[in-house]
Amino acid sequence: MKxxxxxxxxxxxxxxxxASIGSAVSIGEKAPDFTLTDIEGNTHSLSDFAGKVVVLExxxxxxxxxxxxxxxxxxxxxxENAAEKDVVWLTICSSAPGKQGHMSAEDWQKLSNDKGVKxxxxxxxxxxxxxxxxxxxxxxxMYVIDSEGMLVYxxxxxxxxxxxxxxxxxxxxxVTAALEAVLAGEAVAKGTSKxxxxxxKYAKGS
Amino acid sequence: xxxxKRVNFFVLLAVLSFPSVRAAEPFNLGPVDTGEVVAELVSExxxxxPGQRFDVALRLKMLPHWHVYWINPGDTGLAPQVEWQxxxxxxxxxxRFPVPHRIPTPPLVSYGYEGELFLLASVKAPEDLAxxxxxxLRAAANWLVCEDTCIPGDAxxxxxxPVVENxxxxxxxxxxxxxxxxxAGLPLPAEGGVIGAEVLEDLVVLTLEWEGFRGGELVDPYFxxxxxxxxxxAGEQSFELSGTTLRVAIPKTEYFDEGIEAYSGLLYSKxxxxxxxxxxxxxxxxxxxxxxxxxxxAGDGVGVLAIGFGQALLYAxxxxxxxxxxxxVFPVLSIKALGFVQQAGEDRxxxxxxxxxFAVGVLVSFWILAGTxxxxxxxxxxxxxxxxxxxxxxxxxxxxxxxxxxxxxxGVFEMGTSxxxxxxxxxxxxxxxxxxxxxxxxxxxxxxxxxxxxxALGFALTLSAFQSLTVFTLLALGMATPYLxxxxxxxxxxxxxxxxAWMETFKQAMAFPMFATCIWLVWVLGSHVGNDGxxxxxxxxxxxxxxxxxxxxxxxxxxxxxxxxxxxALAAFFCLAGIWIxxxxxxxxxxxxxxxxxxxxxxxxxxxxxxxxxxxxxxTADWCLTCKANEARVFTSEAVLRRIAELDVQLVKxxxxxxxxxxxxxxxxxxxxxxxLYLLYDGKEGAAPRVLPQLLNPDLVLEExxxxxxxxxxxxxx
Lengths: 206, 718
Fold this sequence. Notes:
The complex is a heterodimer of chains A (206) and B (718).
Chain A: H1 2-22, E1 35-38, E2 43-45, E3 54-58, H2 64-71, H3 74-84, E4 88-93, H4 105-115, E5 121-124, H5 129-133, E6 138-139, E7 141-145, E8 151-155, H6 174-183, E9 198-199
Parallel strand pairs in A: 3-4, 4-5
Antiparallel strand pairs in A: 1-2, 1-5, 3-7, 6-9, 7-8
Chain B: H1 2-23, E1 28-29, E2 32-33, E3 37-43, E4 53-62, E5 67-74, E6 81-85, E7 91-92, E8 101-105, E9 108-114, E10 116-124, E11 134-146, E12 150-162, H2 176-185, E13 188-189, E14 194-200, E15 203-209, E16 222-225, E17 238-242, E18 245-251, E19 264-273, E20 279-285, H3 286-295, H4 309-323, H5 330-344, H6 348-378, H7 392-410, H8 421-427, H9 430-445, H10 453-461, H11 465-488, H12 490-494, H13 502-509, H14 511-554, H15 561-582, E21 598-599, H16 602-608, E22 615-620, H17 625-634, H18 638-647, E23 650-655, H19 661-669, E24 677-681, E25 690-692, H20 698-717
Parallel strand pairs in B: 1-12, 13-20, 21-23, 22-23
Antiparallel strand pairs in B: 2-3, 3-4, 4-10, 5-9, 6-11, 7-10, 8-9, 11-12, 14-15, 15-18, 16-19, 17-18, 19-20, 22-24, 24-25
């Protein structure tokens, strides 16, 4: 009985340890820096945008959940609204070559034009390193970083997890809520939510 | 202009009617192939008869490597959904999901199914169905199916069933075998199991208590949490099984939702659970336990094992009320009665404030008790209600207070002018006095796990800290209510007799219940310290009495200052010496095993329980007055003794006087945290015992014995 307790405690402590070193991003802590190349060939680092509020959006245009938000124009409206408020919006694609959502720079440019994507830049993360750094699980998976570089939101785009665009008006948009709070200098009420969507199509084995 | 308006009108009409156009999309009899998934609505029977209950299923056949999701999809995904459109009078239950699998897409893990899936739903046909007609069940199903990529799918499915006259006309349908196989593999509720959760930094630690764990082992266990935003589905879980307690450490997801209070989920083990017919997963849930309590149709007519939170609160309140009538609170009642008499003449607002002070005293003590219980429980000790009386030091402390109080009431010395600790405060005027009389009332009342309270506390121990505090709060409120009511309605107080000379007589008479309580406490101590230890305890009381006498005789204002001071010092010395003498010297004690009673062990009960003779198990403790009263009532009745001999009832005693972890476990498995608990087994292998009420009388026991025997002969005649 006693031995069991001790063993369990050790196991639990071990898990705690791994859990704590495993979570690289947490709310209220510094969002880790990264550098990626966008579809125009320019490199961007998170640190380039120091002093500005930044939104990170993981995407994959083959994913029905991404289609839900781009097909309805919801995502573009959010991006446009953010741009008006001088918020940096980085769209990141971590699909590995050969996997759904992975595209050449030309195809990306065409798609961005066709869909009217309004983000500051679309960054290609084909080895998935930045996605893994941020533990991006799904597309769309959203993050909001405040002007101090602290992560203030990590989770779903809105409150209704479905692939149906008709749910968008009924849902509460968490990114909008987080941005409004941050821009007003207030604390973000809902800092995390379980993100919904398709799994990020990471390269195998890395 | 007019034309334009008309066009507009038609556009509007088209837009408005769009949803209904969609709704009119045909429902398909037979399979619908959407590419990755073939969906079909199937039944286990070809035809149905009026009033029939049967299972239908949404059958999803996926291409290799494609999967759909469980209720909680894990890292990604969505569970399939079905919207039913049933003919008039048909009823349908919720979708029943089979045990899911973990589907890894590194670094993510989802919960779901590959291959062919049958999601069952139970349907009940109406009684007035016309024989010869056909009933069509319709379902609009949608799902998300993923391989590497994800595709949402939906289908409008229909199933047509002819109505036949009776059961003999019903034939199994094409998928009958798959449906019955799926049904047999569905997770079963862990009967009588309880689930508790604790959040530790980045872990959620679940504590599962279930009799079904006993003697088994888990192979490749995994716990599927049903609530989303709890577990990191990609995280490794850690398991520790000891006896009937399983602890599972589950890494939290980054999106952990603090708001979830009740957890539920499936415990999977590769080797299956013998206690649940060999299924590979059993379901633990707080709401299921509550539901079982309310349903009460499973023949457990006596004693509800599992109760809901609301019910527990009600029981806690009633239990608190009843505590006022328990023998061990009686002496305190007398203190309270004295208090009423004293206050009756004073102004009413003050009386009410005294009432509130008393209630606060009760509340605070219950909170302290609850806090201690929670803390000790967290420390992993197996503890139950009444644990204070299992600590000799606590009993001695109580004994000293009671004894001094008795002496004071008897007139040996006067308390009140100066306060000696708790006892002095109790008698002292003012709100502190009322507060501490509330504290004292609680301290004395706690061991009386009366009817109602046992269940409420058993339940409280399985809850979160906040919920157990709520239960304890209601217990306290229940106990304080009569006093509050009296102090708020001065009219009732006016009914109490006027103060007068009779009060002194009354006060002296009240000394006797105090001494009676002392006798009981001494007897409780006897089982801890043994015969020789008792000698020390009684000797200590004598020295204490001398100290009290010195104080009463010479430490009064009538004496000079020096005499007073000397007397007080001497009195204090004697009191301390008395207490020191009483404290336990060694843990010398022997178990007096009764002749007719066999000593409890789970193995013994299991063995006796399958020998065909009734078995009566008595969970008791020497300090439990309810238990002793029950035993005195029942086992002195000639009728009961005769019946026990006739039926050759095996008597087993589980003595909880000293903390015994095995018995604590057994109590917990019946939702109790204290004694008494009475179980009656009918002697058939594997049969669940009848749980008898906490207040026994001979007639009731005779009835229960008769019921057990009746069951037996019924079983034989089958």
